[in-house]
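**User:**
Make up any protein.

**Assistant:**
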Amino acid sequence: MLRISKWELDFNPYLQKQTHVHVWIHLLDLPQEYCLHQTLTKITNGVGIPLLIDEANKKWALDHYVRILVDVDFPKHIFEEVIVKREGCVLCQCGL
C-alpha cells in the first residue's frame, strides 16, 4: 500500500510512525440480505476504511461469514462486534 500525506516543512522520515494496518475482518452471522457491496461498506466504515471484499464472498461460496480487508488506524478504538439494524428488523450483532 502506498500512503501519501501532505508535505511538511523539514520533513523527517525517521520521526514518522505507522499507525495504519490492513486487517481481514470476518462479519459473522450476517444475514444474506446485508451482503451487498454498498451495505458491507457502510458496516465496515465503523471499523476502518474498507478496501476489498473476499472473492469467495462475492460468489456466495461462504455462507457463515463475510471477509473484508479493512485499513485500520490502531490509535482509534478497535471494536470486537458491530450491531447492524434497520427499521422494522431485529438487531443483528456481527462479531469481528
